[in-house]
Amino acid sequence: MTLRRLGMLQWVGLLAGAITWTFAHLMGVGITQAECNAAGAGWNLSNPWWQGTLMAVAATLVAVAEVCSVLVFLRTRGKEFGSGPMPPEEKDDVKPGRIHFFAAAALVTNAILLMIILLDGSANLVNIACRQS
To answer: What is the number of other CB atoms lying within 10 angstroms of the CB of residue 10?
Structure first.
């Protein structure tokens, strides 16, 4: 696999999980608001069904991002990290050590985001959405 392809997978692994979590969290809040407000009463939403589906899709996408991160991490293992800033003539070069660093960050980030998605989704499934206090 070329360094350019590994660089693309590295960005997928780093950004896909965060974007997925953001979208899933906002959609979960929106689904709950739509079910509980008078404007959404005519839609007959099923909060547990929608929240469960959203959690499953988001967890799958974060798992795919984690697989991308693991693949890049393993393919760039043991590469030279370099020291200091890049010289101007090497600005466009892809450095395997830097790809490895971002892949390691994505490994940890995606694991944390997967945990947050599963906890957030399971809390939405267990919680009674439209309770008056």
So the answer is: 27
Sign of the CA dihedral 75, 78, 79, 84? positive
The amino acid occupying position 43 is W
pTM exceeds 0.85? no
Q: Render 5-51 in DSSP notation, one character per residue.
A: HHHHHHHHHHHHHHHHHHHHHHHHHHHHHHHHSGGGGGG---HHHHH
Residue with tokens 């790809």: 99
CB distance 95 to 86 below 8 Å: yes
Per-residue pLDDT of the chain (133 residues; tens, 9 = 90+): 788 888 889 899 999 999 999 999 999 888 888 887 777 677 777 888 888 999 999 999 999 999 999 999 998 887 665 555 555 565 556 677 788 888 999 999 999 999 999 999 898 888 877 776 6
What is the domain partition of the chain in residue ranges? Answer: 3-78+93-126
> Minimal CA–CA distance to 7: which of 127, 118, 95, 70?
95
